[in-house]
């Protein structure tokens, strides 16, 4: 589903050049649940942004569902992204001025989905993440866990093929964190590919594969075969 | 999608009250100023456009080179002769303008200012609509008169005016033969009653309509479609040669003015009334636009300054699939919505402010939301202003990259340089407007305080009746009035100061016998012997008239040259090539008729300084002062003693009623008459002050908002500095320093601009204040702007600086 070959990302300012990603080679298959781990500043989030087409690589090749991403315009990327990728952030990133329902509905508006269909899909997805009872509240009126459930609802309402989650439990307590991970598992169980950045090895356990990063490189990939049976697959 | 934009726009507006109020109030003031000025400008531009074929109608004008007269009116023979010589002229009418004639209806005597005497073609040329009577025959008899509906109401109330009579100056009864619809307010003409031109020879003598020296008739002609008026103008010189002789073009010229240009561009002597001014229209349009622009700049500055708050939203929208164009549309919708709210407030402000504004300008200004054109224009203005104000923020905000902003990456808060430039623009325009207001007021002060060469204090002036012997009216009036202890002196003159000096004569220097290139045209003012003393005029050489010099003999066939006397002003003496002292005892010859058969040889007995006779608008004219003459206008100046003038005025009224029983008394203080001459400038000054205040207020609002956001953004820095030992004053100075620099830069930009434009404005006055003398105004304006900036910023800064640092540090 996602193919990355020799992908690099370099940030340049007048005086400094920082390499955030170096020679990344990665294949992510349909229906996988990938966890990306590594210390702060190792390039996890940059990789996630590149995967989600929020950022463009400096060099290398990136193929998303058989379509080449490199070299596309901002508008093209937006079109590609909006129907196929859902995002979940650590800090929820809900629009404070909109209600829960309106926040969830937002991606559908940009996809020009007719109003009646929008309504049904929003209701369905809010039920699924158990936030329907708060539909008319504003984000500030919700707990962190509830806000993240709204963010999950917004991410899945377009029925994307890929969900990218950037430390989705980072701002949540254990109970709420587990709840959100449960939701991600559920979605993955339904066939949605999930890529999640996390610091927490326990949360990474939910993934089918763990990608470890250091200094912009992929250090290793661990494939989880089951809770007690894992195999390390070191990549040089 | 649009509903989503609307929802978020409304909630954003509600969630940021400071931002919203500053923008809505600023834009509302800007839009209200622009709307009011647009109504005013539309009204000014509409003058005389409503007449049929207005674009083909021209007014004939006449210039005299000698005494620098540029008349809006011409001599009565010119119109008919033009018709005769140029058959292409389709129609012509002459109108002798109203000139305070006494009309009586039964017992009621009215000093009528709205009676015009005209050719009957006036009705066709201007297509005046008759509600009673026949337009074609209404003025067929010399004693017919036609009234406007307003005049009919004024004279006859609800009675039918047709066939009724009005007495004119005790001379004749005029029969009302028609009533026409009132002239609209937006015309340069002003009349409500029309008498027949055939009345003039009866009242003023058989040659009154063939007199080339009586340039009192407004003459309008209609040219054929597609005819170039220049073609006619080029033939005027030959026309003058044909009718007035070979030398005529050396002393006089004819011209044409398009009817629709008169109100805004004509500033001739003897206009119907004070015309408008194209400069004023441009100036106020520019000022109103500047106020609106300042408000738009507020919107741009505040929107970009608070981009931090919107950056995350932009990021989220982009993440969920928004294209940049969609975000631009969203932000533009927001700014248009905000402008719409401002427009509602602006319309309310216009409804409140327009009536007093119209009353202040004495104009019939109309603004109605029921008019679809007005509504359309307001709608268009809302969209345009919304797009203008929202364009930069929309493009700026929509460019954020989601990957950066959602991680809390740095958001600049707009281009700092651009925002500084915009603040400089706001302050530069505000400072320039403050300076302009100051200079306009300085010129007013100059006009009021300048030594005009005579003492105008405590003078009451009034006009004497025309159809009575001058001396038999004047002498007894003077004797009785001067007997009152509250009146110090009473004098006659053809024109009193504050009036335009429009009369002129040819004068031949000593030794020259005929009118030739050596003749000079000088301004004429007729005065009696005490006039100079009355007005406290000092003599540069010689002496005032003696009483025995006031009634020189009239020339006769046998004695065609009479001896008389004259007093010159310094400019007059200079025209003859004499110093004041040299002029004394010299003789100048004044031809008394065109045939050059009769002359007055005037011995110069005195020379006085040049007087600012009419106003500072008009250059001082070389003038000959000579004895009273009944053929000239007749005016009385009454000097009252210091103290309460009411007893003297009561005495004047009693004496007048007894000695001039058929003439109503119409008096005014000379000071008021002079003030009236500067009325337009006084109003301009007030309007300037009001608009400048709005501009400064809106700019200050913006600065307040900006300072508030800047302070908020620097809260953490303030906290750290305080922990490091900075005092409240240090912090306030830190935050005000940036704005101080901006205001200083604005001053440096505003000063030369204001200097240039105000020099141009002052050049309209013949006698003007010097900008060098008033240069301190430039400093004061800059200091005022600086003070406003300091107070605004320091207020915010001191609050932030006074907060406990731990709070500030926790904020982040």
Structure notes:
The complex is a heterodimer of chains A (236) and B (812). The radius of gyration of chain A is 18 Å and the shape is globular. Chain A is built from seven helices and eleven strands. Chain A has helices at 44-51, 74-84, 100-110, 115-128, 144-156, 174-189, 201-204, and strands at residues 2-12, 17-28, 33-37, 59-64, 67-68, 85-89, 162-166, 193-197, 209-214, 217-224, 230-234. With 236 residues, chain A is an alpha/beta fold. The two termini of chain A are 22 Å apart. Mean pLDDT of chain A is 86; it is low at 226-236. In chain A, helix 3 (100-110) crosses helix 4 (115-128) and helix 4 (115-128) packs across helix 5. Chain B is elongated, with a radius of gyration of 34 Å. In chain B, 49% of the residues lie in helices and 16% in strands. Chain B starts with a helix and ends with a helix. The longest helix of chain B is centred in the middle third of the chain and has 38 residues, at 324-361. In chain B, the strands form three sheets. In chain B, strands 1, 2, 3, 4, 5, 6, 7, 8, 9, 10, 11, 12 and 13 form a 13-stranded mixed β-sheet that branches. In chain B, strands 16, 17, 18, 19, 20, 21 and 22 form a seven-stranded mixed β-sheet that branches. Chain B is α+β, with helices and mostly antiparallel strands. In chain B, helix 13 (324-361) crosses helix 14 (372-397) and helix 16 (416-449) crosses helix 26 (776-802). In chain B, a hairpin with a 3-residue loop joins strand 9 and strand 10 (172-180). Chains A and B meet through helix 1, helix 2 and helix 3 of A and helix 1, helix 12 and helix 13 of B.
């Amino acid at each position: 589903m996602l193919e990355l070959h020799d992908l690099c990302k370099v940030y340049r300012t007048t005086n400094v050049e920082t390499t955030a990603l170096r020679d990344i080679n990665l294949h992510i298959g349909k229906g996988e649940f990938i966890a990306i781990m590594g210390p702060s500043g190792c390039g996890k989030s940059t990789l996630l942004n590149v995967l989600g087409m929020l950022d463009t690589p400096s060099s290398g090749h990136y193929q998303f569902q058989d379509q080449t991403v490199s070299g596309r315009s901002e508008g093209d990327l937006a079109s590609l992204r909006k129907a196929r990728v859902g995002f979940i952030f650590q800090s929820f990133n809900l629009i404070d001025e909109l209600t829960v329902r309106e926040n969830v509905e937002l991606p559908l508006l940009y996809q020009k989905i007719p109003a009646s269909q929008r309504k049904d899909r929003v209701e369905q997805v809010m039920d699924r993440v158990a936030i329907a009872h708060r539909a008319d509240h504003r984000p500030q009126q919700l707990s962190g866990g509830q806000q993240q459930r709204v963010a999950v609802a917004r991410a899945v309402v377009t029925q994307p093929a890929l969900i990218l989650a950037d430390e989705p439990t980072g701002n949540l307590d254990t109970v709420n964190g587990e709840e959100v991970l449960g939701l991600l598992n559920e979605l993955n169980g339904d066939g949605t590919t999930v890529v999640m950045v996390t610091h927490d090895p326990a949360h990474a356990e939910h993934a089918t594969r763990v990608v470890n990063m250091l200094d912009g490189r992929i250090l290793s990939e661990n494939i989880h075969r089951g809770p007690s049976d894992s195999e390390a697959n070191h990549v040089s | 999608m649009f509903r989503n934009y609307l929802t978020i726009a409304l909630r954003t507006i509600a969630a940021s009250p400071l931002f919203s109020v500053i923008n809505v109030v600023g834009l509302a003031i800007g839009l209200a100023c622009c709307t009011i000025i647009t109504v005013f400008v539309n009204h000014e531009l509409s003058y005389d456009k409503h007449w049929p074929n207005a674009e083909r109608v021209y007014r004939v004008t006449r210039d005299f080179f000698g005494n620098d007269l540029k008349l809006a009116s011409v001599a009565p023979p010119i119109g008919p002769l033009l018709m005769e010589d140029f058959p292409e002229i389709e129609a012509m009418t002459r109108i002798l303008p109203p000139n305070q004639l006494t009309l009586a209806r039964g017992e009621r005597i009215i000093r009528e200012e709205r009676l015009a005497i005209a050719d009957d073609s006036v009705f066709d040329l201007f297509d005046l609509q008759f509600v009673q009577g026949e337009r074609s025959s209404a003025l067929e008899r010399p004693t017919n008169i036609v009234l406007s509906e307003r005049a009919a109401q004024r004279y006859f109330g609800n009675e039918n005016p047709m066939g009724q009579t009005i007495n004119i100056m005790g001379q004749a009864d005029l029969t009302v033969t028609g009533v026409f619809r009132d002239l609209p307010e937006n015309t340069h003409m002003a009349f409500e009653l029309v008498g027949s031109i055939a009345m003039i020879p009866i009242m003023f003598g058989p040659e009154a309509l063939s007199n080339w020296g009586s340039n009192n008739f407004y003459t309008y002609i209609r040219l054929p479609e597609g005819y170039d008026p220049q073609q006619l103008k080029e033939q005027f010189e030959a026309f003058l040669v044909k009718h007035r002789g070979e030398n005529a073009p050396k002393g006089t010229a004819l011209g044409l003015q398009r009817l629709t240009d008169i109100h805004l561009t004509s500033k001739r002597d003897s206009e119907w009334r004070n015309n408008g001014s194209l400069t004023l229209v441009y100036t106020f349009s520019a000022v109103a636009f500047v106020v609106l622009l300042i408000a738009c700049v507020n919107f741009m500055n505040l929107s970009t300054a608070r981009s931090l708050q919107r950056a995350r939203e932009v990021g989220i929208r982009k993440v969920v699939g928004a294209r940049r164009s969609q975000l631009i549309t969203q932000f533009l919708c927001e700014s248009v919505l905000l402008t719409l709210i401002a427009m509602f407030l602006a319309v309310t402000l216009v409804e409140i402010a327009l009536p007093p504004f119209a009353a202040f300008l004495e104009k019939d200004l109309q603004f109605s939301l029921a008019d679809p054109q007005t509504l359309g224009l307001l709608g268009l203005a809302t969209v345009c202003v919304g797009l203008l104000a929202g364009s930069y923020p929309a493009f700026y905000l929509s460019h954020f990259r989601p990957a950066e902003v959602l991680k809390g990456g740095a958001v600049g808060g707009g281009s700092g340089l651009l925002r500084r430039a915009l603040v400089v623009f706001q302050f530069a325009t505000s400072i320039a407007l403050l300076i302009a207001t100051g200079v306009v007021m300085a010129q007013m002060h100059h006009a009021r305080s300048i030594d005009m060469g005579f003492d105008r204090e405590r003078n009451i002036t009034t006009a004497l009746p025309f159809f009575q012997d001058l001396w038999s009216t004047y002498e007894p009036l003077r004797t009785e009035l001067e007997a009152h202890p509250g009146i110090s002196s009473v004098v006659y003159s053809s024109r009193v100061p504050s009036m335009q000096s429009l009369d002129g004569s040819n004068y031949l220097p000593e030794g020259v016998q005929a009118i030739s290139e050596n003749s000079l045209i000088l301004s004429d003012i007729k005065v009696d012997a005490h006039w100079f003393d009355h007005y406290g005029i000092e003599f540069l050489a010689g002496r005032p008239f003696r009483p025995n010099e006031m009634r020189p003999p009239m020339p006769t066939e046998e004695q065609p040259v009479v001896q008389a006397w004259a007093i010159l002003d310094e400019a007059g003496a200079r025209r003859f090539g004499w110093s004041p002292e040299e002029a004394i005892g010299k003789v100048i010859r004044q031809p008394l008729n065109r045939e050059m058969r009769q002359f007055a040889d005037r011995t110069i007995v005195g020379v006085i300084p040049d007087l600012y006779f009419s106003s500072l608008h008009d250059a001082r004219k070389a003038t000959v002062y000579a004895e009273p003459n009944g053929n000239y206008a007749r005016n009385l100046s009454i000097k009252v003693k210091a103290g309460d003038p009411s007893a003297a005025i009561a005495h004047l009224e009693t004496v007048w009623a007894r000695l001039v029983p058929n003439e109503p008394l119409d008096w005014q203080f000379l000071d008021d008459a002079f003030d009236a001459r500067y009325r337009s400038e006084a109003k301009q000054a007030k309007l300037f002050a009001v608009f400048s205040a709005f501009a400064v207020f809106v700019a200050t609002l913006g600065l307040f908002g900006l300072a508030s956001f800047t302070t908020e953004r620097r809260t953490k820095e303030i906290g750290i500095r305080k922990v490091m030992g900075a005092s409240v004053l240090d912090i306030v100075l830190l935050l005000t320093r940036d704005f101080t620099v901006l205001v200083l830069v604005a001053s440096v930009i505003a000063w030369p601009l204001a200097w240039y434009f105000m020099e141009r404005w002052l050049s309209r006055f013949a006698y003007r204040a010097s900008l060098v003398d008033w240069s301190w105004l430039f400093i004061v304006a800059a200091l005022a702007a600086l003070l406003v900036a300091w107070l605004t910023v320091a207020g915010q800064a001191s609050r932030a600086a006074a907060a406990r640092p731990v709070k500030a540090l926790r904020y982040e």
